[in-house]
Design brief:
mainly alpha, about 130 residues, about 0% strand, 4 helices
């Protein structure tokens, strides 16, 4: 965590200083800092994913739904980073379109999960009506 804070603070200070002189270099510095922070987080995510895979291995069919949920989480996090970078560059329209595209992808991913929930609800309704 200290490395992430260090990268962020140093990039922020240099970015603010460079922005006054050269906005392009400042932007490139911030993008590289974002990439560095992302890769620092990935190592922690690998540990979490390994632990969750161990837990999911005993779940059977429900582990597929867990995979879907983690894909959705990954898409949401990466989209947030990219759209924030777009907004920092002054491209709010591109940021908005990136978020819309991610939402569409997320909806397409959760359709099997939604179908399973609807089947459970339908099954419960049939139980109570008979």
């Amino acid at each position: 965590m200290i490395q992430i804070i260090g990268i962020s603070v140093v990039a922020l200070i240099f970015g603010l200083f460079l922005r006054q002189h050269n906005k392009t270099v400042s932007l490139i510095l911030i993008i590289f800092a974002c990439i560095a922070v992302f890769f620092e987080c990935v190592s922690s995510l690998n540990e979490i994913m390994d632990a969750l895979k161990d837990m999911a291995s005993g779940m059977g069919e429900t582990s597929a739904y867990l995979k879907i949920m983690f894909k959705v989480l990954g898409i949401a996090l990466i989209t947030q980073i990219i759209s924030d970078l777009c907004r920092d560059c002054g491209e709010s329209a591109l940021a908005g379109q990136t978020e819309v595209a991610a939402k569409i992808i997320i909806v397409s991913l959760i359709l099997p999960l939604l179908q399973a929930v609807i089947q459970v609800i339908t099954g419960l309704c049939l139980l109570y009506t008979s």
